[in-house]
Structures are given as C-alpha cells and as structure tokens.
Write the structure tokens for this entry.
Amino acid sequence: MVKKYKRNQRIGALMKIFAEKPNYIFSYNYFSEIFNAAKSTISEDIHIVKELVSELECGRIETISGASGGAVFVPYLGLKEKENILNELCNMFSQKNRIIAGGYIYMTDLFNNPNVVTNIAKIISSEFSGVEIDYIVTVETKGIPVAILTAQRLNIPVAVIRRNNKVTEGATVSINYVSGSSNNIQTMSLSRRSLKENSKVLLVDDFMKGGGTAKGMADMMREFNVHVVGTAVVIETLEPEKKLVDDYMSLMILKRMNEKDGIIEIEPNSKLLR
C-alpha cells in the first residue's frame, strides 16, 4: 500500500528539502513521486511554503512554469537577522586574546568553525542572491571554508587559487602580485581546467588590508577571460582607506587594534544594514 501524507507533513518535508538544497530547481514530478500526490496538490503546498518563507524573511520560493514545472528556494536574510549575525561575528573576532605577536589577529579557529562560517556564508550569499554567478573563486587557505559554504547556498562550484603550483592540478596559469599588507611580491596559480571562458565569478577572501590579494585574483581572472561580478571579504581594515581595488563588499571593518592594551575594535559594515 502506497502511503499518503497529510498536508502538514508535506509542508514540513518541503521546507527541509528546500533548505538543504537552496538554489536548486526541483520539478513538480519529483515532489509528486515522493509524496504520492497530484501536481495540483503539490502546487498548492508550494504556494503555502512560498508565503511562509516570505513572512519569516528567510528567502523566497520562485516557481517555474512549463510542461514539467518546478520550484527553487532562494535564501536571503532579513535586516534584523543580518544585524544580529554581524554583531555576533564582531564580538567573536574582537576578543582581546586574539591579538598575537606582530600585530596580527588569530582567526583560524573561527574560519574552521562550521557555525561561524555558515553565518558568514549566509550574509555573502544573501547579498549576491540576485546576481548571476557561475563560480566562486578564493585563494587558499582561510578563504576556502567561506567559499565552499557560500557556494553551497548558491548551488555553484568553487575554484581555489593556490600559493604554489601543485602537480595534481595539471597545466596552470601563474601570476605575480604585490601583497597589499606586506608589499612583498608573491605568486598565485590556478589550474586551466578550473574555469570556463566567459563565465561569471564571485571572488571571496577572508581579510583585506591593502587589497593586493583581491587585485591579484582579479588580474588572474582576466587571464581566464572571465567576468568578475563582485568581490566579498569577511574583514577589511579601516586603514589604508584607499585600497588597490574599488568594487568590493566587506562584512566587517577593523577600525582599530592596540597590541599593547589588547584592544580590537571591529564593527559591522554599515552599508549592509541599510
């Protein structure tokens, strides 16, 4: 005997399915088969879910018309939730015991924490939810977790730029760039198989001081003949005010750090809260 599901059961299951695979188009046929329900019934269920996610300000359901038909969940954050996440992130990154010798901030544990990185990815993916993107591109190493979880929410692949050539990458493109923080000349490389020509990419990095790494990534993208649709960084420093790149979005701004007094002052980027 084929099991029938009540509407509240189907609604709960739909929410779970959409949340676990955002920006993925599910056909009505798929839902009809797993719930053993008519397409008209599934359409009514999805309409209820659509209203619910809109009221909760956690995203939107887009429906696709046509013979097969389908629906996709596009997650985004409401202003209040975004503010709460940013404030929580600022508190974690500005703990005084994070200052290490040389005037650096220890952040590795946070970028390796799935809960922290998930919240970062929620904001980045929300800000770029209406942008057509084919790939997320990052540079090793701390940017990788952020890039992967952001890509998961946008349902797109990731390309990782390496600091050193790897024989397992095959033929690569390498360029030299000037680090904006140290003013040292460094090398980055990316496998020729990583990106398709004329695709659209979002650059993601963990930290920006002078913008040298972001500029190097953008220069690398020109070698692949792809279009950069945006650059997202988790933290940027207030100084220097003039970066080597102009068009970028940061989640947080490091306004001041005093190694002697153990003070780290990090604030949310106010542009995200307008």
Summary: The first helix runs from residue 7 to 20. The chain has a mean pLDDT of 94.
